[in-house]
DNA sequence: GTCTATATATAGATAGAC
DNA sequence: GTCTATCTATATATAGAC
């Protein structure tokens, strides 16, 4: 969206800046991360940061943009494999749990916007909204595939919302208790029960 | 913990400072809220803020402390009323949903610490940990009462964790979509299913 | 594209009169 | 306890040589 990601000398600097900025912002938050901190951490002078991104907010937007791209690109296809519901549900939960585990910094970064949303640029907010929408749609599609909900979009919607909120809540828990993982076991039971509650055929009781 | 809350001239100022500081910090986050902003918003000079709280961090701790006290005091007794499981579960969910709705700023404030945790004082972190622990214990006790889990503490634990994570996730959702409420309907279905999954007697199928 | 040097504003915090 | 005035550090951002 901003520029091609892989080129000569300047592009490497660009990436280095985004790497360290992302790491620092994920750890300290946007407001608490200063340009000088980023400069010191990545070795390039402040003026270079401004040459590349124009402003602190520009860096922020670029960081979010990249985190979003990375995270969305890593999502598996919404066509969850598996011949029956149980296999697909298992595959879905494994994928979600893994992605959640692998992309901790991105998740943190994107969640963190909440605390600065009021001050953030329209561009930054839009970036995160887009990310959120894309994630939601993916979850909806994947769950629709898992439970066969092509005719019941509102159910797919509820299940997706449920799943994402549980994931967000777990991310929050991780702020206090590093190492908190997405509990896919209870989530599986809950999703099955919710589907069944809406009259979706769920071969075999949850227990 | 810091001083008596209701006295003459100075105490009113103290409260005014905490009110506006809490509001600003809940909206912008800790780092993005400056002493001068608070001073301007509440009318008292910066030196008064320092006289009362010593430092910006002191204000933060006091704000968290008060938010915690308020929130915990508002929690209903863990002895959830109701003659059968369904009545108690309903009462529990209503209470949680209401508290969640009523105390939005406190929740936001306490969640927000996550983003500054790395830099925050030990005192601030301890404050939030204590809050979190108290909330968790309350949920555990209440759910234990709802489902009759005195002999199954690990199940009560799982249900409480599940509930709190869902609540946290919903708080996050509210950052993007104001007006997002705790969906007690799906939560009820999920909790019943989880209890049943662990062999707890849950008279009547969830649907 | 990267560097040194710097402009300008505001941050957190204090001094001391009242 | 509250005020005005101020110290010092650091923030974002720019200028201009290389």
From TrEMBL, chains A, B:
The keyword DNA-binding applies. Residues 11-71 form the HTH tetR-type domain. One of its GO terms (molecular function) is transcription cis-regulatory region binding. PROSITE patterns: HTH_TETR_2. Keywords: DNA-binding. InterPro entries: Homeodomain-like_sf, HTH-type_TetR-like_transc_reg, HTH_TetR. Residues 34-53 bind DNA. It comes from the Bacteria. PANTHER family: HTH-TYPE TRANSCRIPTIONAL DUAL REGULATOR CECR (PTHR30055:SF146), HTH-TYPE TRANSCRIPTIONAL REGULATOR RUTR (PTHR30055). This is TetR family transcriptional regulator.
């Amino acid at each position: 969206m901003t520029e091609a990601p892989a080129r000569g000398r300047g592009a490497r600097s660009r990436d280095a800046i985004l790497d360290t900025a992302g790491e620092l912002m994920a750890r300290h938050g946007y407001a608490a991360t200063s340009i000088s901190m980023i400069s010191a951490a990545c070795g390039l002078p402040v003026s270079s940061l401004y040459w590349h991104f124009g402003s602190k907010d520009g860096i922020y937007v670029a960081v979010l943009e990249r985190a979003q791209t990375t995270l969305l690109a890593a999502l598996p296809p919404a066509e969850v494999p598996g011949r029956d519901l149980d296999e697909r549900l298992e595959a879905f939960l494994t994928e979600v749990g893994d992605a959640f585990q692998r992309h901790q910094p991105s998740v943190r970064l994107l969640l963190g916007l909440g605390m600065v949303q009021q001050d953030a640029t329209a561009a930054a907010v839009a970036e995160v909204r887009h990310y959120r929408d894309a994630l939601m749609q993916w979850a909806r599609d994947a769950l629709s595939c898992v439970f066969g909900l092509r005719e019941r979009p509102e159910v797919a919607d509820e299940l997706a919302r449920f799943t994402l909120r549980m994931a967000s809540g777990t991310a929050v828990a991780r702020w206090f208790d590093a190492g908190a993982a997405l509990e896919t076991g209870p989530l599986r039971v809950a999703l099955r029960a919710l589907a069944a509650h809406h009259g979706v055929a769920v071969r075999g009781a949850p227990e």
